[in-house]
Amino acid sequence: MAESEQKPTPENMTMMQAFEWYVPDDHKHWTRLHDNVPQLKAIGIDNMWIPPGCKASSPSGNGYDIYDLYDLGEFDQKGSKGTKWGTREELVTLVKKANEVGVGIYWDAVLNHKAAADHKEKCEAQEVDPDNRNKTTSDPYEIDAWLGFDFPGRGEKYSEQKYHWYHFTGTDYNAENNKSAIYKILGDKTKGWAKAGDVDGEKGNYDYLMFADLDYEHPEVKADVIAWGKWLSKEVTLKGIRFDAIKHFSEDFLREFITTMDEEYGAGWFFVGEFWKDSLDDMSRYLERMGKKFSLFDAPLVYNFSQMSKTEGADLRKVFDDSLVQIEPVNAVTLVMNHDTQPYQALEAPIEPFFKPLAYALILLRNQGYPCVFYGDLYGIKGEHPFPPACGGALPALTLARKLYAYGEQDDYFDFATCIGWVRKGTWDRRFGCAVVLSNAGPGEKRMHVGEMHAGEKWTDVLGWEQGEVEIGEDGFGAFTCPGVSLSVWVNKDAEGRDQFGKFDSDIYKS
User: Where does the sequence pass through the membrane (predicted)?
Assistant: First the structure.
């Protein structure tokens, strides 16, 4: 088949979580992202998962303490007009700029709960065992709980729906006696938690997570949140949604929400859920029930990375064992860190710094999964315990190497526990390919076959961590090396794009 008749090779896509928990509370995040979108696109970032842009419980809230879905930083509520990230106008300007340079926006939808109610309401409830929410620990009694949401700053603009005690399944504070507990809200028909199987079965029934827990059995809740989805996609040009805490709210509702978005705006939106669990069976079943129109973050792979980073001489050949990307490569979003895994925050699965470059190479330069790069690893982490950019500043080079060279047939050289490698041989229209070697012990070397079509080429490490050249033999083989406890990414030194490396500016705060 002539090259003109061959189909172009699809471009590798990379997403980025475009925030970290400790971003400065200066309300300038949308503006900073706006100014940096072009350079993110230049290193191969195609889609940005931005932080929750809805009004939080305070001007400093990251948005997971969500107050009003319909306030994107437009109304004077909860202490400010803007959110921690900025105003609605700045958000719209960011999205417009991203669209101009070809970067899609994924919204972070926090649909499980509401926080910072406007007034208290009395309702009947029962205390439950925190470790088994199906077990009650008190008789039913009346509590005075923060469950009334009037949205006085917004009024009835965009939505007339107000929220009352009967729109929620649970809460965590009784103002009557100043007691904190998990309260299951009761009603005329003794609502209780979501039905078994519609939420995760951890802790008996994991419907309740925090704050005032929304009841997706209530028709007004379902109607208002679906209306919000339609409204949001008209107000902000999106390419997808990241759903927070999907273990904790109705799977049936989420399926209906996604179907509505597809029908309303056409299939093709990207949907990914935070299902932070190391049970591969549970994750696979969830994807099956969602009809595979959905992706999940590969939490089991993060746990593997974490464990290997803390185990001397870990067997790198087993890095993908029992990971989501191993069994569901099309529906797995692979990652190394995010706002839930960074140090001093949730401590879910922190990864030792030396292992991060290896982990990023494993998700960025292979042909399975959809990799997600973390803002805190690109730009560093602020706050009380600051961290510099990860990977010795080499992460932009890895994302760019993915965009330019990680194409074609993949041959693995997983033949030694502490030193592995693989080759991407390139395609007819993305012909350069790459060879990757990584070690979690001493210096490594792999004799690998990149193809006879590369014979005579001289390859160098795009990271600059390994010196010298490798000349590809007539048989298509080269002897590729890497430093100890490190990696190298070898590419033809004359390959297109080699001049694009080394230009990323990680000083996003201009400090």
Answer: none
